Amino acid sequence: MSEKKEFVDTPSGVKSKGLKKGSISLIGAVAIGLAATAPAYSLTGALGPGAREAGYQLPIIFLIAVIPMYFVALAYKHLTDAVPDAGTVFTWGSKAILPHIGWIGGFALMLSSILAGVGAAGITVNAATSALGLGDTAPWVKVMIAALFILFTTWLVARGAEESSQTTLLLTILQFGGLALFTALLVMNVLQHHRNPTAEAFSWEWFNPFAIHSASALIGGFLVAIFIFWGFDASMSMSEEMDGSPEESGRSGLTAIIITVITYVVIAVATLAYAGIDRASPSSLTNEANISDVFSALARQTVGPVGALTAAAIVGLSAFSATLSTVMSTVRGVLSMATYKALPRHFASVDEVAQTPKFATWFIGLTTLFIYGALILVSDRIVEDCVYSVGIAIMTYYSVVAVSSVIYFWDTAFKSWRTAMEQVILPGIAALVFIPVGLLQGYRMAQPDYESGGSLAGVGTVFIISVFSLLGGVLLMILWNLKEPTFFRGETLPRERAHPSSRS
Q1: Residue 484 lies in a domain
Q2: Distances (CA, A) of 254 to 66, 189, 243, 250
Q3: Above 60 in pLDDT, residue 207?
Q4: Would 11 be classed as within a structural domain?
Q5: Contact call for residues 307 and 300 (beta carbons, < 8 A)
Q6: Which residues contact 124 (CB under 8 A, 6 or more apart)?
Q7: Model pLDDT for residues 441-478, shown as the tens digit of each residue
Q8: Which residues are 242's β-sheet partners?
Q9: Burial of 495 by CB count in 10 Å (0-12 exposed, 13-18 middle, 19+ buried)?
């Protein structure tokens, strides 16, 4: 007699979107998740501030920060297994909680991608103007460079998932190859005692959480670290196009986040051992001249000007591949929302030849370009603030995913300790972390001296951008509800819970 196992019934109301099945391999999906985290770009801007907050305990801070992210990744995996849909957070929030919550989660995902795209455009413009020696560049020149970057990225995504994933895979290999070479150079210098004289020798004490010197250091380092893990979920939105089962799609996100945390910890150890954290030292991670661009500074010290140029190129590739993968993920969320009548039907159109949502792709791309162009005419600082403002949107949709997992699997998860932990308890803990951390981050953003120091009426510009962007989404939801209420009544995407069935 065969052993009986528990299965989850096929979810009701989930629709095919006309996407090309089998166009993305498991390796390609993992590459999309890795690229979206943008390791080179994220680390070069996070290592300095992270070391300033946490000191030599930065490696353990990275490991602590990844814990709630891994719990959310488990929620993504199990929800993808049960409800494989390109809409991810939108679909799951709508089915498990309420259509309105799902809509806000989907909007927060779209918002985070657009704001990240604005930031990536800013990085590309800065790198291009620096490489060309343009110095103080006129705003219209910056807009032209950004337009080339954004339009090329959008065109590439619009060609189809297969071409986009292959490009992302190539860029990811180049990025990780560059990071591996950079880390090897640092380790070789450390072993040969060619390091910063003020740097401490490596110690396993760096992995001791009880050695963190204060609660503020823990919180500050945690807030820096937690945002650089964002993006692993990009691969989950490709579940309808992956070559294989939904379970393989779910595993791609877990694989991406494990590779990412290993990368971050290894590079954190290498840079700390080589450069140290003495602010007075011109070679340290926390020196004001290095803190915002660690890789270029350390590459210049170890290799020379060529090293700095190579590091800048790797960071540029990182920003490009991150934009590519996040746009791929976001347009599929928009496609899903339109398929279930949560957005105008034009966004539900899929090109018959490329089998990709071209209208939604160009909408995201042109919106990103418009926002960048409008903001750069006001101030470079506002473009930087857009990068920092993405945090609240990320916390919003990750919280929706975690809570959706708890509610969706509540009736079935407790039949075994493993499903109870992975589907309900650990995602629930993630929600209990992300919600207060999001509130704390919002409080920090509201301070007038946060990041760029821009403020309006004593409130930080970063907070204003993030909160008003989300409030704009709430307003759009209300207006669309008045025009097309069928989705919000649960008619196009009915609410549902997991219910078991026994199969041999």
Answers
A1: yes
A2: 11, 33, 17, 7
A3: yes
A4: no
A5: yes
A6: 145, 146, 149, 316, 319, 320
A7: 888 888 877 766 566 777 877 888 888 889 999 999 99
A8: 24
A9: middle
Residues 6+ apart with CB under 8 A from 238: 24, 29, 32, 86, 161, 165, 249, 328, 329, 332
Provide the CB-side half-sphere exposure for 501 (13 A, CA).
Answer: 8
Domain ranges, residue 394: 23-492
Structure tokens at 171: 């860029």
Question: Looking at the 3D structure of the chain, how many domains does it have?
Answer: 1
**Structure confidence at residue 452 (pLDDT):** 60
Residue 323 resides in a domain? yes
Q: What is the DSSP letter of 242?
A: B
The Cα 378–Cα 368 span in angstroms is: 16
**Residue 313 confidence (pLDDT):** 83
**Hey, CA dihedral for 380, 383, 388, 389, is it positive or negative?**
positive
pTM score, two decimals?
Answer: 0.87
Residues 70-117 have pLDDT tens digits of 999 999 999 998 888 888 999 999 999 999 999 999 999 999 888 888
Residue 96 is encoded by which pair of tokens? 């498990």
Q: Domain holding 113: CATH number?
A: 1.20.1740.10
Q: Which helix (H) or strand (E) holds 459?
A: strand 459-460
Tokens of 20: 């090309």
Residue 263's identity, in one-letter code, is T
Residue 76 included in any domain: yes
